[in-house]
Specification:
The chain is of the alpha+beta class. The protein contains five helices and six strands, in the order E-E-H-E-H-E-H-H-H-E-E. Helices cover about 30% and strands about 20% of the residues. A hairpin with a 3-residue loop joins strand 5 and strand 6. The longest helix has 22 residues.
């Protein structure tokens, strides 16, 4: 359950969000969107190269993800007077195992401090962090008092991190 936490040393400590709109088309789904009516039609689904399917310039996105993830994670930690040594668990967006591994290496985090489940489910997009957090809690890898960082890089060329004390 998410809600107010009377003890300010617990809960969500801070969130850090970024975007680079000029690169939005490098990782996007053009439709369905709030500016297109109707949002989805049968014709859209049948159209080859449909605007409904994700588009990505993989190498470009990969390069930026392995740069932006560590930046925003360090930003969240520094904002709260912490370092990577204080971090108990990093739960990154489960888009690509190699990205997670390179981010962990760049942050000098040992494998046991990074939770990955992409091997079991693949990229579950926006659901990947909540699924991974739930599994990490179930496995006992997130315990009361743990410093946990959630981080993502996604569509529209956006990235962010949330630091929380469990």
């Amino acid at each position: 359950m998410l809600g107010p936490e009377p003890d300010r040393r617990r809960g969500i400590l801070s969130t850090h969000l970024h975007s680079e709109g000029r690169y939005a088309e490098k990782l996007m789904v053009e439709a369905a969107s709030s500016r297109v009516r109707p949002r989805v039609t049968e014709e859209m689904l049948d159209q080859p190269g449909s605007r409904l399917w994700p588009r990505m310039e993989g190498r470009y996105v990969f390069k930026h993800a392995v740069t932006r993830f560590p930046e925003v994670i360090r930003e969240a930690l520094a904002h709260n007077g912490c370092t990577t040594a204080d971090l108990d668990l990093l739960i990154p967006h489960q888009a690509n195992l190699r990205i997670s591994q390179l981010v962990a290496m760049g942050l000098e985090l040992p494998e046991e401090k990074v939770f990955n489940n992409i091997q079991r489910y693949g990229n579950t997009t926006a659901a990947s962090i909540p699924i991974a957090l739930h599994e990490a809690v179930q496995e006992g890898r997130v315990r009361p008092g743990a410093l946990v960082c959630l981080a993502a890089f996604g569509a529209g060329f956006t990235w962010g991190a949330a630091l929380m004390r469990w």
